[in-house]
Design brief:
Length: 282
C-alpha cells in the first residue's frame, strides 16, 4: 500500500457520496467521533460537526503511550482550527496482558479498550460511537474493526460508500489540511508480532520518530527489533536519508537504539501483517 494514497478528483459521484454521508449522519443523530487525527477521522469529525452541530458531534481522542505525542497535539490543533468540541480520554490498553502479548489480534484488544472508554461518554450524551473506517480498510487485517462493530460502533464512511482516495479528495475540496497527512498508525504497530509491547518500547519508537520528523521526514516508521531500529521512508526519500545518515543515526541512537538500519523496500503501511499469513516470519 502506498503511504500517501491516491487523491481522487471530486466529481458529481463523489459529491453525492458526501451528501449521502451527511444524510446518514442526520438520520443517525448525535455521534461521538473516535478522533485519532488521521485523514479519515479528521474528515469524519469535521463533516459530523458541520452537519449536526459541534455539540452533537464531539470528537474524542484516546491518549495512551501508543499515541505519538505529536498526534495528540495535532488533534487539539485541528479541533481548535475548526471549532470542534474536543475531549481527550486516557486509556490503558497496556494493562491488558492480551494486548501486551502482541499477537495478531492486538488491535482487537486495543479497540475494545477504546470502546469501553467511549461508551459511558456516548451514553451520557445520548450519542452513538462513530469511527473513520473507509471502504479500503475492510479488505485489510483490521481486528480492531471487528471489536468496534461487536460493540455497536457506526462506520459512516463505509455506509456512504467512501474509499480512502475519495476521503482525501473531499478533504482537499473542503480545505482540510489533513487531506495529505501520511497515515500514522499507533506506535504498537512498529513492534513485530510476538514481541511484547511495553511502555519502554513505545517511548523508544516515539522518541526516534520524533527525532526524524525534526529532520523534515513526514511519512516514516521506525520498526523496533530490540537494540536495532529499522527505518522505513518512501522510496523517493531513501537517498536523502542516506545523505543525512549522520543526523539520522544520531536521532535514532538518542532514542536508545544501538543499531540503525534503513529498509531499502521503502515505507509500507501494515507490512508486519505479512508475518500473519506466512509470507515472512519476522
Amino acid at each position: 500500500m502506498p503511504e500517501l494514497d491516491t487523491v481522487a478528483p471530486v466529481d458529481a459521484v463523489t459529491l453525492d457520496k458526501l451528501a449521502g454521508l451527511r444524510d446518514g449522519l442526520r438520520r443517525g443523530g448525535p455521534v461521538v467521533v473516535a478522533f485519532s487525527g488521521g485523514a479519515d477521522s479528521a474528515f469524519l469529525a469535521w463533516v459530523a460537526a458541520d452537519t449536526l452541530g459541534a455539540g452533537a458531534a464531539p470528537a474524542v481522542t484516546a491518549v495512551s503511550p501508543s499515541l505519538a505525542p505529536e498526534e495528540e497535539a495535532d488533534c487539539a490543533a485541528f479541533a481548535a482550527e475548526h471549532g470542534l468540541v474536543w475531549h481527550r480520554v486516557v486509556t490503558d490498553e497496556l494493562a491488558d496482558p492480551a494486548y501486551t502479548a502482541n499477537d495478531g489480534d492486538r488491535c482487537y484488544y486495543c479497540k475494545t479498550t477504546l470502546m469501553e472508554a467511549l461508551a459511558p461518554l456516548a451514553a451520557g450524551w445520548g450519542a452513538r460511537i462513530a469511527l473513520g473506517v473507509n471502504l479500503d480498510d475492510l479488505g485489510e487485517h483490521r481486528p480492531g474493526q471487528r471489536a468496534a462493530a461487536e460493540r455497536g460502533a457506526a462506520f459512516p464512511l463505509v455506509e456512504a460508500g467512501l474509499a480512502k482516495a475519495e476521503v482525501r479528495g473531499l478533504s482537499r475540496h473542503l480545505g482540510l489540511r489533513t487531506w495529505d497527512k501520511p497515515a500514522a498508525a499507533c506506535l504498537a504497530s512498529r513492534v513485530p508480532y510476538g514481541t511484547p509491547v511495553t511502555i519502554g518500547t513505545l517511548r523508544s519508537v516515539a522518541r526516534a520518530e520524533s527525532g526524524l520528523r525534526l529532520l523534515g521526514l513526514r511519512a516514516l516508521r521506525v520498526r523496533h527489533y530490540g537494540e536495532l531500529a529499522r527505518i522505513e521512508v518512501p522510496v523517493d526519500e531513501l537517498e536523502m536519508v542516506v545523505a543525512r545518515r549522520v543526523e539520522v543515526v544520531g536521532a535514532v541512537r538518542a532514542a536508545g537504539y544501538r543499531y540503525v538500519t534503513l529498509d531499502l523496500e521503502g515505507l509500507r503501511s501494515g507490512n508486519l501483517n505479512l508475518a500473519l499469513d506466512g509470507r515472512w516470519t519476522s
